[in-house]
Amino acid sequence: TSICKCDCGTIIRVANASLSNGETKSCGCWNRDWNRQLKTTHGRSKTKEHYIWMAMIQRCRNPKNKAYKNYGGRGIRVCKRWTKFENFFHDKGECPPGLTLERVNNKTGNYTPSNCVWDTRKIQGWNKRNNIIYTFKGKTACLAELCEFFKKKYHTIYYRLKRGWLIERAFA
Known about the structure:
Number of helices: 8
Structural class: alpha+beta
Strand order of the largest sheet: 1-2
Number of strands: 6
Helix content: 25-40%
Largest sheet: 2 strands, antiparallel
Distance between the termini: 90 Å
Radius of gyration: 27 Å
Order of helices and strands: EEHHHHEEHEEHHH
């Protein structure tokens, strides 16, 4: 046997016959790399985007998922194109830091390229279906968004409305 150094830097013992007949060409790294390439479809399986995509698929298609009742159970679907991660990633790209996937039309909209954007959790909170929508001075939005827009304290306006005040008086 001979002690050999592979191109990758690994040192191994190899039978002399295996060296002379060409049977051994690497420490095994070549086979590992080749198999990894054969099995890799997109190379992004441990990325934030892939986790977001998997969660989206599970919410909409897996009745055993705890969020299914609020998504797939309500009829929200993932478009056929996005059933493949590669297409989802091609359409949306990398998720910017601090953002997550948001459906623009949250009440009836499916997960499609035209109905999804990367957005903050705060904006997503403004787009929940259980929000009460108000109109004040021509702006229609949930209370939290209106308070931020008009620079008012949320809890002050919230408790005024809870006591039965009209929106105009609550914001005055």
